[in-house]
Structure formats: C-alpha cells, structure tokens
Amino acid sequence: MPVHRGNIGEVIMSAWERARRARIEPGDRKTPNRQRSGNWVESLARRFKEHYEGDPYRVFWSANRKNRKQFGRNEMLFDIAVCSVFTTKSRQRTARDLEFIAQCHWQIESEFNRTNTREIVIDMSKLVMGAAEDKLFVAAHRRRGQRDILEQFAPIAACCGGRLYFCFVSHPADWADNARPPMLFEWIAGGWSEIALPQAV
Q1: Which of 42, 3, 7 is nearest to 197 (CA)?
Q2: Cα–Cα distance between 46 and 39 in angstroms, integer?
Q3: Cα separation of 102 and 85, whole Å?
Q4: What is the residue-averaged pLDDT of the chain?
Q5: What are the CA-CA distances from residue 29 to residues 26, 100, 176 (Å)?
Q6: What is the pLDDT of residues 35-88, one digit of tens each?
Q7: What is the Cα–Cα distance from 137 to 123, expressed in whole angstroms?
C-alpha cells in the first residue's frame, strides 16, 4: 500500500526506531553522528521500499545499488526518491528496453545541521524544484525556536507543489541520551498543521 497522509506517521516512527537501534561500527571512517545520519536515511528509505515493492516502482537512495545497472546511479537528485518507471525501446537492436522515470511519488530530503539554516534552505529548495505528489523534509529538533523554523520555511513551503510534510527528528548527537520523538507537520492552506504520530514502541 502506498505511503500517504494516513500512514506517513507510522512509517516515520518505525524508521526512527530502526535507525536508533542500528549498530555503530567503531572502526568506521565516518563519525558516529555521520553513521547515525546515514542509518536514518537508510532506515527511512527501506520503510518506503516496503510500501513500494516491485514493478513499476523504484526507490532511489545512496546505499541502494539495485538501480545502478539501469540508471547508472544509486541516488536520483534527492536523498530518497520513490518513482514509477516505464520503458522505451533501445536504439541498439540487441539491447534491452530502457527504463525511464515516468512519475515521482515521493521526494525526501534530510538535513541535520542545527547551527546554520542555510543548508536547510538549499535542501528544501530542491523540493520546490521537484514534481512529486508528496514531499518530506526532515530537520533536527531545536531546543527552542521550533516554531520559528517552521515560520522561516513557510515562504518556501508556499512555493512547493504537491503535499509537503516537515518532520523534526533528534540530531544524531542526541540519540544516546537526549533523544526526543519525531514531530510531523503538514503544509495546509498556507500554514503548518501538526500530525499526531503513533507512540514509539
């Protein structure tokens, strides 16, 4: 079943719980915070993939190599993109038909920078450029000023086509001790409306 307003909260909460339980490799070149950030994107992408399994869907994210043979890349413009594909004939007689993206259902960007909102502005602008039916932006919780962040991004949200969701998730540095549950908002009729999320398991 596709991801929609009625189940996006469950998808986010289950991805959040999985990401927090994911192992941190002590010898990894990436810092623990970068590993946690990667675990979050991986967990969220896999939850979407569970809802969009098989033809005609493809889910793109940096760690998914299944699309590389046909599209030459893992990630397609966004941290996570859920698309439908069709095929067109190849001009080479012996080659297989070529897949192309016919529709984008979800575009997802995640940016945990807490000190400079410029990075969030840039990444959220990508969602304005896209044509997906549904879009999700994930940012780090703030100790204060969360409403100010939503107000700051209201002009960008107003330019964004499709249904737009904004989710606050604890910064990876806080996962061990000060993790707060996610909060989810939807842009409706020129303002942010909070969506109640299911309780963490």
Answers
A1: 7
A2: 10
A3: 5
A4: 89
A5: 9, 35, 20
A6: 999 999 999 999 999 999 888 999 999 888 888 777 877 788 899 999 998 888
A7: 8
Please answer whether residues 158 and 192 qualify as being in contact, where contact means their C-beta atoms are separated by less than 8 angstroms. Answer: no
Angle between the N-to-C axes of helices 118-129 and 146-158, in degrees from 0 to 180, rounded to the nearest 10: 30
pLDDT beyond 80 at 90: no
**Dist. CA 105–CA 99, nearest whole Å:** 16
Strand partners, 186: 165, 193
Cα 1 to the chain's mean position, in Å?
A: 18
List alpha helices for the chain, DSSP H.
8-21, 32-51, 68-71, 118-129, 146-158
The domain segmentation of the chain, as residue ranges, is 8-195
DSSP structural state of residue 199: P
